[in-house]
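Record Glycosyltransferase, 401 aa.
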Amino acid sequence: MKKIKILHITQSLGGVETYIREIITHIDKEQFDLKIISPPSKTLSEVCAQHNVAHIEIDISRNFNPFSDSISLIRLYRLIKRERPSCVHIHSSKAGFLGRISSKLAGYPSLFTPNGVSYLSFTGMKRLIYFTLESFAKFFTDRILTVSYSEANRLIYEVGHKQNSIDVLLNSVTFPLNYSSLQRTNYPKNEHPKIGTIARLTPQKNPLLYVTVAYHVIQTHPESHFYLLGAGFHDHLKTEVIDLINRYGIADQFHILDWCDPKASSEFINSLDVFVLTSVFEGLPYSLLESMRAGVPCVVSACDGCLDVVRNGENGYACLTKEQYVKAILDLLENPILAKRIGENGASYSYTFHNSSKNSKILSEIYKKVSNPEWSDEVQVKNLEFNSFAMVKDHEVTTLG
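=>
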């Protein structure tokens, strides 16, 4: 049987790299031939080599520049024409814009995964520009695969993409074979409570709010320590973060750690008593899913992506204000039974709905659909009906319209 060739294109790493690594690891290699186009990445190159997947390294600037973007567009067009893929799977904002145009011009079907809608990163005129570019890209878009239902809603009701052009497949993580029988760690794990986040020092991740929350928690629990893992990778707010830490006088209890490889990141998560995420927006954060997988109780922002996952007081806490963050963290630190229950519920939920070995089968059918729409009209996919918009409600999948 001839393999279906999928060409992946991205200019981003971080969560997008995790998304691509999960696909490489779990997709059926007997059915699919993958090739990855991305910026240089040691961890991604290692995964590609391990699974015999070709990796082409190309730098695509994150910022818009007419000259360099025109060159990137031509390079992508030529690559797509040369590779002749069955489907071009394009990830993130900049590559998503150029990739959709180059795929359409080259005459090959594309599947676009935003991993967080681009214009949400900005305000004012810059936000309007990015929104206009996304609206323009509609005319070059074949299909969209979002990683959360809230992300799909934005693309439908704000950008104006057609509902029947969008499929939703929740971000997923790898679980060990014996996961269901693993014993969850008792709480608290540490003599001095360890609260942590994984975030770049950028406006999207809102690290200044995280520092403020840390200050107020420390006023009640001075023995607690806060950690931020993610420095050294787009440190736009590093100076402001350090200044605020010093102004609050919590430098001895607030620790900034450099971005690290996936293994070290997983070890960091496993060491936490509470995981916190203060993002302004997300697609669907892997750090949240990985923390839930580890049984760590999570306190996150009530933003796109997080709201698809967290049920307040059941498997985590979704917060809008500083006060809500502080209260949720204090409740978990002061009630070990509650913390253990929240962590275990999160682990159970993530195993059921965010399991890469299960969801890769759905992704396979989506690839078949995009590659050959006539054949795939007959494909029946568990949990998702194509040409419809699905949402998770009360842990059950239902279909709208």
